[in-house]
Write a structure and sequence with these properties.
Strand content: 25-35%
Number of domains: 3
Bound molecules: flavin-adenine dinucleotide
Number of strands: 21
Distance between the termini: 66 Å
């Protein structure tokens, strides 16, 4: 049988591509190597942010016309509506899982001094979602409009030919070779298929590989009010942040990260923060119900993700990650672009244009912003973290560290020259002025 579109991977990118393409009448097959639809094997913190803010900065780059996908939520009694904006149409997703509201990310020093991302805690930053439920819903909707879904089926190879794409699969009953007019490769990070297809040629390894470790907790006794979205720092125990947030249904997670080349033992870090640190109190009554780990690659993105008859969608071609909403937007666009290509139009140009304007990692300006402030726990000691957070909080400054420290750098150099020098890598004269 010849398909119009075979999609490899039923994560947010692939599931959304399958739903959209099937809704538009294409003959679609969705392949997923896991045996249950929507089952997730790769760790993800599951927060869906409202608005178009980035990971390191809330500012929008101006060197590239940004057309990022944004989200809105409509809450109902039995189900919620998630809307994706920034695509050719507003895309609506019905979601039946729990939503864990995230209010005002809060940075906490060893002495308990805090500063926050927003001036008030009235505005939601986003929701932590039950990602399995979200994916199950998308896959079910795709099936209901005629998409064939094969789980427990791994794509082992793909060949793009002028006449279409040959897809090799393996499942419990054996191996098969399938033919499709177009394919979407949405198989996530560390994709061997992407490598096979030659997409990684010339794609230099970036700043390296990060390891993550997270514990899922049954409760949290946070002294920081409504905000359970915390970033804890104690450089004497770990030169990075330990992050705390919700985890549906009704749970929390505490996690941290480090370069894979470092000798940092992440479970030791989490055990220390939870059991033997000034933060231990909030974890005292908590039980660890699950542990999850994963790696993330920091590599330059692949600019022309749509080539020939294949569109590579989501984390496989990204710098680090595209996030859930980004991957869903890409899945939607990959379906539209595949359909355009099947009608003889330049679907690849349509897709690549969306991809190259949808993510901050394509902006050289944003990349520069990320480098201008060093990670606080990596360069400061416990006392300096206390002093810096007191300095920020006493001035009622709120925002991402990268933004607020840079925006207030002159004052910081004048008043806390040693700390400013460590954060910005510049030397200062005795009056506190930067001389770099
Ligand atoms: C530590 C960490 C924290 C994160 N936190 C967040 C967060 O808070 N919020 C957020 O929005 N995003 C977060 N992300 C990112 C988010 O998880 C991803 O960006 C998103 O899931 C990417 O979707 P995707 O469809 O590209 O790939 P994936 O979600 O990885 O899905 C790929 C799918 O393809 C399947 N597959 C792989 N190979 C094959 C094959 N050969 N054959 C068949 N099937 C195959 C896999 O089983 C999987 O189901 C985080 C990521 C990491 C690593």
């Amino acid at each position: 049988m010849i398909y119009d579109l075979i999609i490899v991977g039923a994560g947010p990118g692939g599931a959304m591509a399958a739903r959209t393409a099937a809704q538009n009448g294409l003959k679609v097959l969705l392949l997923e190597r896991n045996s249950e639809p929507g089952r997730i094997s790769r760790y993800c913190s599951r927060m869906m942010r409202i608005g178009s803010v980035g990971f390191q900065s809330d500012k929008v780059p101006t060197d590239l016309e940004m057309k990022r996908v944004t989200l809105s939520f409509e809450l109902g009694d039995e189900s919620q509506i998630i809307r994706l904006h920034g695509l050719p149409e507003v895309v609506t997703i019905e979601y039946r899982g729990e939503l864990g509201p995230c209010l005002n990310k809060t940075w906490v020093s060893p002495s308990g001094t805090v500063f926050r991302r927003r001036a008030t805690s009235e505005n939601l930053e986003g929701y932590v979602v039950d990602k399995e439920e979200l994916l199950r819903g998308l896959i079910l909707e795709a099936e209901q409009v005629g998409c064939e879904v094969r789980v427990g089926t791994k794509c082992t190879a793909m060949e793009d030919t002028p006449d279409g794409v040959v897809v090799y699969i393996r499942h419990a009953a054996g191996e098969e070779k399938l033919i499709t007019r177009r394919a979407v490769l949405a198989d996530g990070s560390f994709s061997p298929l992407l490598e096979q297809l030659g997409y990684n040629k010339g794609r230099l390894a970036g700043r390296g590989r990060i390891k993550f470790m997270t514990y899922i907790l049954d409760r949290l006794d946070s002294p920081y009010g409504e905000s359970n979205h915390l970033s804890l720092a104690m450089p004497s125990r770990h030169p990075g942040f330990v992050n705390v947030n919700r985890w549906p249904p009704g749970r929390f997670h505490v996690g941290t990260s480090a370069s894979v080349t470092s000798r940092i033992n992440l479970p030791n870090v989490l055990n220390t923060f939870m059991g033997d640190s000034p933060f231990s109190g909030m974890f005292a009554g908590a039980k660890i119900v699950e542990k999850q780990a994963c790696n993330m690659d920091l590599r330059p993105p692949v600019a022309d993700a749509a080539r020939g008859n294949v569109i590579a969608v989501g984390d496989n071609v990204a710098y680090a990650e595209t996030a859930i909403k980004g991957a869903m937007g890409l899945g939607y666009m990959a379906a539209i672009a595949s359909q355009a290509a099947l009608l003889g139009q330049d679907g690849n140009a349509l897709y690549n244009n969306h991809w190259q304007h949808g993510f901050n990692f394509f902006s050289p300006q944003y990349k520069r912003w990320n480098k201008r402030i060093r990670k606080m726990p990596a360069v400061l000691d416990d006392m300096q973290i206390n002093t810096l957070y007191e300095w920020i909080s006493s001035r009622n400054i709120s925002g991402m560290p990268n933004d607020i420290l840079y925006d207030n750098r002159d004052q910081l150099y004048r008043e806390l020259p040693e700390i400013a020098g460590k954060l910005m890598g510049e030397t200062v004269d005795p009056s506190g002025r930067s001389v770099a």
